[in-house]
Amino acid sequence: MSFLILNGLFIGGIVDNFTNIDMYKSIYVYASIHLYACFLFAFYFFISLFLSQVAMSFLILNGLFIGVIVDNFTNIGSENKEITMEAIEEFREVWLKWDPKGTFVMPSHSLFAVLQVSYQP
Predict the structure, then answer these.
(1) What is the dihedral of CA 67, 70, 75, 80, to 10 degrees?
(2) Distance in angstroms (rounded) separating the CA atoms of residues 95 and 87
(3) How do residues 20-75 score in pLDDT, each as one tens digit?
(4) φ/ψ of residue 10, rounded to 5
(5) Which position has the higher pLDDT, 80 or 51?
(6) Are 114 and 94 in contact (CB under 8 A)?
(7) pLDDT score of 4 more than 50
(8) Which of 12, 31, 40, 111 has the fewest Cβ atoms surrounding its Cβ within 10 A?
(9) What is the rounded distance in angstroms from the CA atom of residue 10 to the CA atom of residue 105?
């Protein structure tokens, strides 16, 4: 009965004739509008739920990646390897073989050869 009252089909305490085509059209329009509204609500609700899940996943994974990178940077300094003056002199001698004029410029294809000849500090 409340459905009929809300749609304006209950007039003066007497329900309109159910064979009236306009009544069926109004019920169809009412139902289709509300069905469309429910569909839009569900659509936007699930889209917002999906986007929030994607955002949270991005933040969590981004935090994990940053944590791994920072952890690696903290482990690099824990080896206590110092570059000695002897290692610098050895590298200078190797560099002078490839750049005898001391221009501090060397062809890029020679860099691999310099690194092969030089010792690890």
Answers:
(1) -170
(2) 12
(3) 555 556 666 667 777 788 888 889 999 999 999 999 999 999 999 998 888 877 77
(4) -100, 110
(5) 51
(6) yes
(7) no
(8) 12
(9) 95
In which residue are the tokens 């691999």 written? 112
Kindly list the distances between the CA atom of residue 92 and the CA atoms of 52, 82, 85, 99, in Å, as whole numbers in the listed order: 56, 17, 10, 10
* Alpha helices in the chain, H assignment, sequence order: 2-6, 21-76, 85-98, 111-117
pLDDT tens for 98-118 read: 887 878 888 888 888 888 887
Q: Are 85 and 105 in contact (CB under 8 A)?
A: no
The single-letter code of the amino acid at 21 is: I
Q: What's the burial of 119, exposed, middle or buried (CB within 10 Å: 0-12/13-18/19+)?
A: exposed
